[in-house]
Automatic annotation (TrEMBL):
It comes from the Eukaryota. GO terms for cellular component: plasma membrane. It is a multi-pass membrane protein. Residues 218-781 form the Anoctamin transmembrane domain. It is found in: Cell membrane; Membrane. GO terms for molecular function: chloride channel activity; protein dimerization activity. Belongs to the anoctamin family. Residues 38-190 form the Anoctamin dimerisation domain. InterPro entries: Anoct_dimer (IPR032394), Anoctamin (IPR007632), Anoctamin_TM (IPR049452). This is Anoctamin. Keywords: Cell membrane, Glycoprotein, Membrane, Transmembrane, Transmembrane helix. The chain crosses the membrane at residues 229-256, 304-323, 383-407, 427-445, 480-500, 592-614, 642-666, 737-760.
Amino acid sequence: MYTMDSSYTNGVSDVEEMEMGNKAGDTVELVGSCQDLFVIVSSVEDKDQSHSEKRKVFEENLREEDLQLKEEIRNNLRCVKIDITLEVCKIYADFLQLRMPMKQTNLNLLGDLGAQKQPPLSAVYNKDKEYLFDVTENSFSNAIKCRIIDFILRRTRFEPKDGSDLSFGIDSLLDDGTYVAAYPVHEEEVLDQWIEQWKLCSCSGLRSLYDHETLDALRNYFGEKIALYFAWLGFYTMMLIPAAVVGILCLIYPLATLSKHKPSQDICNADNVTMCPLCDTCDVWPLNETCVHSKISYVIDNPATLFFALFMAFWGALFQEMWKRYSASLIHHWGLTGVSLEEQPPRPQYLAMLSDDVPQHKDPVSGRLEPRPDWWSIKLPRILASISTIILLFLVAVTAVISVIIYRMSVRAALALSIDESWKVSILTSMSAAFLNLIILFILNKIYDFLAEKMTEIELHRTQKEFEDSLALKLYILKFVNYYTSIFYIAFFKGAFIGAPDDYNRLFGYRVEECPPGGCLLELTMQLAIIMVGKQILNNFQEIVLPWMYRRWRQWRSINDESGQQGPRWLKDYFRVHFGTKGLFDEYLEMILQYGFVTIFVSSFPMAPLFALINNVIEFHLDSEKLLTLFRRPVAVQDTGIGIWFNIITSIGSLSVLSNAFIIAFTSTFIPELVYTAIGGTGNLDGFVNSTLSVFNVTDYSAGQQSHIQQNIELCRYPGYRFPPNGDDNEYKLRPIFWHILMARLAFVIVFQNVVWLVIKIITLAIPDVPEKLQLEIRQERYMANSLILKHEQDRAKERQEVRLRRTTTHF
């Protein structure tokens, strides 16, 4: 879209122009009838003299900005209701570079190209070129007007002009208690229509997640930032449909071929195969006890697993590219293509943390003197402290995982004494450990949320965007470690370093865990399912129940609850939950973590896309219901993308390729089966289970271990590729087949990731970020806008020349 050149300005600032207009005695034109757009609320019981002085100066300065203020007192709350004039809207539309529709009649000057343009042509508004634009009262929605009011509130002084240069902004007044709230007021009629519309959307299925009319209405009422979140959530949810369908098909395939799976048949028919004890106090057990376990494992670990991993790798790349195209179309549809976001002011918290002796420097954009902390003496020590804290929290997460591992080993040993079936011991141990891990994750997450925000505060980020980006990255890293450490352990480390029965590796005196003959993929799937589904349930509980309880508590504490329920709209909104500057932060973080479950470990959990799809449909309607019924109306924020979250998604895509390659190579039985089929001589899996089990002489156990073995046997079997007890130097050492399989696994990882990344690169290059049709439309609109301006400038220059010529002729 077109952006006007700065050379068209006349050099007069917005403030100077406003003052000149006031001095000239211009009448003030209200945008429509007087209405309560925005309110700032203070407590009647606040007797602090300094607060009163600040409020007086602040509100007087707001009136000087031509804002319309009206005071009302209810429930010991003093509310100042704010309205705005059309003239002020025009001034700040120019300053904020808002796009406004150009006069449709001017398009006729462009001939056929202008006649073909159906939607109104828009451009960045320039007050000096007002003759180009069709700006009326209806050009500014209430959301835009509230955004302009918020912009003014954040830059208005609350101390006399001879005071500190940093004494400005509603945020500082909220922080020190001068005001208790500042928020846009919900539009009663529009809100009721929205609530009714969302009830209809809830019944209209998945189409409502992708409906442009719904997104346009969201954008007009809540602003682009919130609309983009719902657009991304809806797009992501729709993209999950093919992934969920393929995941279901990859689940149907092993169910249909289970009866033909030779390894599970061999395990179920192994009546005479005795396995070595699973713990120091356990007895030997028959291999066929894991018959059910082996069949369930095949449902997850089968040839379709490789196909699904490949499919999801390409799906992730396609999702990223298609989102870029869709968001480009959406941004163009909203008239934001090429719009640069305005410079953000310094955060009040940032200014408050800086001492008076910090050197002052002039900001190149605003021209204000601001404190700028020295990098080496002030910022670097704080950043190092933050990094150290992150490392400490990382170690806490690892310690929690180790604790769960110890719990699992001790519970396994305890259950083995009372339960004979080893597969039941394995299932019960894994499930209880997964639930325990979920509880620990939930507790650690609360600690991480608190500490991450504190660490980000001390890092002295100047703007809100810098603060949010740093916090997002920090919290994602912490929660990534928190959620995924136990999963990485099961996927890549459990059963990899158990040693041999004559010399088991131990952790705090316990034997390290080993995988059953069917592998650890089933346990990995259980861990993923419990954590993913459990996290979604807990998050949904927090997002709906807790804000509702908080709102009811605020109403209960109010002096007159009935007044709060039946009073004016601003009072009803006051009892709602403050949306805050990080209102969408938790929503994005939750979805990005879910995206990690769907992609990073999808080869071990084919149902992950389906669970994510179901959750997201619910999430879409829960989030919209929160905005409409629980939260105050947020300030409309202009945005042109989802910011740092897309960078995190891109990083997850690269990590998922490597992760799934390692899961298939080292956790799945795919590679051992492939090697056995290739070099075993039979060309099939006959005898495969027997080839994966080594032999151990029971007499080689210690006396204490032997005392727990109740059966009279000489040899037992255990998973591994080791030489039998033949009395030579190779006894219990690794056989050559182990190294062959290891080399095949490493080769698979290298081939898999390089082939996938090559195809992803081809997909990225083949699919342009902006559709060709849209590129042509943007070029046409840029050409039309430039031509229109040039045509007007030529006509106006010709008119001025004719006027001068007539004056000269008249003079002579």
